[in-house]
Design goal:
Blueprint: E1 7-10, H1 27-53, E2 58-63, H2 76-95, E3 101-106, H3 127-138, E4 144-145, H4 151-154, H5 162-174
Parallel strand pairs: 1-2, 2-3, 3-4
Helix pairs in contact: 1-2
């Protein structure tokens, strides 16, 4: 239908809260989460990748989360699916490196949207500021599109990452995200 289509944006995401310290496990919710956040982008990419490779220039943009690098304990499985999608993106980028398809990753921070609910929480990045900064970075040659305020979270990887993750989660426990 759209022979010149050359951009695929995988922006799948559901974000239920969970508690990995309790024995309760919602199998249905968890399968839906993995199916939406990880398998959804993989399935859609598989459907379009050959078409995109026939274009002179093309892009696959996978929307992950800063929680791929800095997991939120209250959304452990969500964080894990975004970390898995980050890993998938790295593999996809490598496999498509000698083609016309560029693979980008947008890793948003907590943005004041209705993913969970519209909160107005001062800790959330205003949507307009996120869009402005993301669009500016998309206009560059960057393959990871991460707003400046959360670059330290991206640089957190390595054998000493746990203290940063612990402080992040302790801060959120001290002032929890209000759930409507």
């Amino acid at each position: 239908r759209y022979p010149s289509l050359n951009v695929l944006v995988n922006n799948a995401g559901v974000m239920p809260f969970d508690d990995v310290a309790r024995g309760a496990f919602d199998e249905t919710q968890s399968l839906s989460l993995v199916g939406t956040n990880l398998l959804g982008p993989a399935r859609v990419s598989a459907r379009f990748v050959e078409h995109l490779q026939r274009q002179p220039e093309a892009w696959i943009i996978n929307n992950t989360s800063v929680l791929a690098f800095l997991p939120l304990a209250g959304n452990a499985l969500y964080s894990a699916t975004k970390a898995a999608l980050h890993s998938y993106t790295l593999s996809q980028r490598f496999k498509l490196r000698n083609t016309s398809v560029k693979v980008l990753e947008i890793a948003p921070p907590w943005v004041d949207t209705d993913l969970i609910f519209k909160s107005g929480d001062a800790r959330a990045m205003p949507l307009d500021a996120f869009i402005e900064q993301t669009m500016a970075k998309l206009a560059t040659d960057a393959v990871e599109i991460i707003v400046d305020a959360v670059l330290p979270a991206r640089a957190n990887q390595g054998q000493n990452e746990y203290p940063v993750i612990e402080q992040f989660n302790l801060a959120l426990e001290a002032q929890p995200i209000p759930i409507a």
